[in-house]
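Hello again, I could really use a second opinion on something today. I've been staring at a protein lately and its backbone has me curious. You're getting the sequence in one-letter code plus the fold written as tokens. I'd be grateful if you could look everything over and explain what you see. No rush at all, and the record is pasted right below:
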Amino acid sequence: MENTCRKEECHLWQGERDKCPNYIESWWTPMKEDKPILVVDCAPIRTFIMIQDLHNRLVGVQQAAEEQRNESGKMKNNMKVVMEALADITGTEENKIRLQFMKDDVKLIEEK
């Protein structure tokens, strides 16, 4: 994590940190180090960096959810084919009724 406060370029910086409304100091401890570091930030710049990071993560989560949806759709279709094949193979009326109930359950899932 790098400092985002640019004192030389900032029009609000007046030589003292108490006078700048966007000045923020925070202490961070890196994962593999014991020594905390001081990070000096400009609040609007840090906010935009954090928003971009969250947006990138959200895009990844959305992509994973879409892939799961597609895979479950394929699985549902495969189950339907298996049930139809079993209904054709089994000749007894009792098995056909059981398979019809299973097909109806799949249709209810499709409607949701």
